[in-house]
Every structure is written in C-alpha cells, then in structure tokens.
Amino acid sequence: MAILEFERASVHFGGVRAVDHVSSEIEQGKITSIIGPNGAGKTTLFNLITGAYKLTQGDIRFRGQSVARLSPHMVHSLGIARTFQNIRLFSSMTVLENIMISTHSKLKPKVLGIFIPGTFKRVEENMKGMAEKVLVLLDLLPKAGYHASALSYGEQRRVEIARALVSDPEIVLLDEPSAGMNVREAKELIKFISQINKDLGKTVVVIEHNMRVVRHISDKIIVLDHGCKIADGVSEEVLRNPKVVEAYLGHSRLTTYAHVR
Ligand SMILES: Nc1ncnc2c1ncn2[C@@H]1O[C@H](COP(=O)(O)OP(=O)(O)OP(=O)(O)O)[C@@H](O)[C@H]1O
C-alpha cells in the first residue's frame, strides 16, 4: 500500500526546474532509495515532502491526504521525520540531550490533555522509552552521556538518525546517511537501516550516493535527473536501465558512480 504519493510534484526556482512533474509512490513498510546525480532534485523532493518548500504544481499525499500546504511542524506531527545532508547536532550537548530535543514539541501537552491527569507524564515516559530503544538499536547507548563533539563522524550521523526516530514517526527520510562514512561505517549503516525498517517497522526513504548501500537496502529505487523521474522500480532492474547509466556517466562524479553498472 502506498503511504506517500507524488502526483506531478513540481517546484521551480526562477528558470530552474528543481523537481519537475515527478509522479511515484512510497510503499508502506518498505525501504525506497532516491538516487540521481548532483543537482537532480533529491533533497528538494525531501524539502517538498516535509513542507520546507511549497509545490509550484502537483500534489504530495500522505495516507491519501495532501501535505502540500502544511508547515514543517505539521508534517512532522503527522509522522514524517527526516535527517539532513549536513550534520546538525549541538556539539556541546550530550547524545541523549541531542536526541530528546526533538521530542520537545510532542511533550507540549495538547489543550485537552492538560485536563487529563498524567497525560504529560505518560507522553514523557513513552518518549524516554523510545529514546532508549533507538539508542540500543543504533548502538549508541554506551555514548549517551558523551558530548556530540566527542563522537566519530559515523556516530554523529547515527545520532541524527536516532533524533529523527525518537518521535516515533511512520516514515523516516534519510538524506545521504552514508556521506563521509568509511567502508566499515557504511556497512554498519546497512544493518542499522534494515533494523529501523524491520525491527521498528518504519517506512524508510533514503537519498544515497553509495551504490553498495543502495543495492543492499532498497526494495525500490526512484531515479531523478535534472528534476525529472527517469526510472523507478526494483533495485537491479533500475540500476541496469540505460537511461540511469547514461545519467550517471554524463556527470563529473563518474568515479563515484562507475559501480552503478
Ligand atoms: N531554494 C532554492 N533556490 C534556488 N535553487 C534551488 C533551491 N533549492 C534547490 N535549488 C536547485 O535545485 C536543483 C536541485 O537541487 P537539490 O539540492 O535538490 O539536488 P540533489 O539531487 O539533492 O543534489 P546533491 O546530490 O548534490 O545533494 C539544483 O539546481 C539547486 O541549485
């Protein structure tokens, strides 16, 4: 079942068609990778899903409801969380504090909740339970009290993922989670993403340049080039698609992409 649908989703910045009539679906409970050369429109698509950018045309629906006019805060409260390409941790705060900061909005008691005894405490307990679960799953529990600045790059990326997960979203959007990781860290990432999907039951959408990661994790791949969708479908079939190979070979990061073949 499709949990997220794009219908001719488009956003133009002046003459730049950053995302251009993209139609596709994200299946609930699956891992979908969004790939494409630099500037293809991948992060812009995440920005459209999460309300950071507004569509010029088309629609994006979550569980059948348009999210096109919602603020990032509202999209997040519906159950869509994300990480960013650039690490955005508070370096002088601990891992646990960095993770719990994203629960702040959920901890604000809702208007009626104020009148129900124990509501606030119950929500807080659930959040703490979820924080512990994700710290264990992402192998961060021993580092919970460390300052973010004391962690390796790979660990910092995992803290970002943990922060996205702690609000217990239905969908988690990961923007280049393997960027800057060494081979060992990228291998571990494959395991962590699979666990997020299987053990926590999350629908995962990943923007990724590392084809080893893409091959291992993806149930489906969507390929963008110059803002347009040029292919989507199951992993190997998409990576063998001549249009996809051509799109990568036409770009300068050839060495990174050569193994797409
Ligand atoms: N706010 C904006 N204003 C103007 N142009 C933008 C804006 N956001 C994105 N773009 C342009 O849209 C295009 C797609 O950018 P985007 O960051 O989505 O690409 P990408 O596929 O994520 O690339 P990369 O793999 O390098 O991160 C680029 O030409 C970019 O310069």
Give the SSE layout.
Layout: E1 2-13, E2 16-27, E3 31-35, H1 42-49, E4 57-62, E5 65-66, H2 72-78, E6 80-82, H3 95-100, H4 104-107, H5 119-137, H6 153-165, E7 171-175, H7 183-198, E8 203-207, H8 211-217, E9 220-225, E10 228-233, H9 235-240, H10 242-249, H11 254-257
The site of adenosine-5'-triphosphate has 11 residues, from strand 2 and helix 1.
Notable traits:
261 residues; Rossmann fold; four-stranded antiparallel sheet; 11 helices; 24% strand; binds adenosine-5'-triphosphate; EC 3.6.1.3; hydrolase; nucleotide-binding; ATP hydrolysis activity
How is this structure best described in words?
Keywords: ATP-binding, Hydrolase, Nucleotide-binding, Transport. This is ABC transporter. GO terms for molecular function: ATP binding; ATP hydrolysis activity; L-isoleucine transmembrane transporter activity; L-phenylalanine transmembrane transporter activity; L-valine transmembrane transporter activity. It comes from Acididesulfobacillus acetoxydans. The protein has 261 residues and is of the alpha/beta class. The chain folds into 2 domains: 172 residues, Rossmann fold (3-Layer(aba) Sandwich); 80 residues, no CATH class. Helix content is 38%, strand content 24%. The chain contains 11 helices and 10 strands. The strands form 2 sheets. Strands 6-7-8-3-9-10 form a 6-stranded mixed β-sheet, with helices on both faces. β7, α7 and β8 form a beta-alpha-beta unit. α5 packs antiparallel against α6. The longest helix is centred in the middle third of the chain and has 19 residues. The protein is globular, with a radius of gyration of 19 Å. Adenosine-5'-triphosphate binds next to β2 and α1.
